[in-house]
Amino acid sequence: MNILLLKIEAVLRRSSVQTTVKSMVEYKNICLEIGNYTIYRDGKKVELTAKEFEVIEAMLLNQGKVFSREEFLTALWGYNYFVDSRTIDVHIKNLRIKLGKELIQTVKGVGYRVAK
User: Fold this and answer.
1) Residue spans of alpha helices (H) in the chain
2) How are beta strands 44-46 and 30-33 bridged, if at all?
């Protein structure tokens, strides 16, 4: 049964490669290409780590929603994460340096958000 499942997954992977559609999210001066992990600020490409990209992607796709550290850790590292909750603070700090301080807002005692 396991072999059958692996073969089905392989066929689905091969067939979905041809139908991949790149989608973009635009917010103020930021343009995010979801399909290929690229982000632009004022038309210039910004280099982000994979986790930084996943953090900003989640925030831009859910504008106005306040994300707590625990939500980020569960969404990005899974339920069995072994990282400090302050890891998110480091990623937010790096994103503010790379994309601008005004992009991400801090909600004291709760978490972070991108305004609508």
Assistant:
1) 2-17, 50-61, 69-77, 87-99
2) unpaired
- The residue type at 32: L
CA dist 31 and 37 (Å) reads 11
Is 35:25 a contact under the CB 8 Å cutoff?
Answer: no
pLDDT at 16 over 60: no
Computed from CA positions of residues 12, 14, 19, 23, in that sequence, does the dihedral angle turn out positive or negative? Answer: positive
Global confidence as pTM = 0.75
Q: Which residues of 88-107 are buried (b: 16+ CB within 10 A; e: fewer)?
A: beebbeebeebbeeebbeee
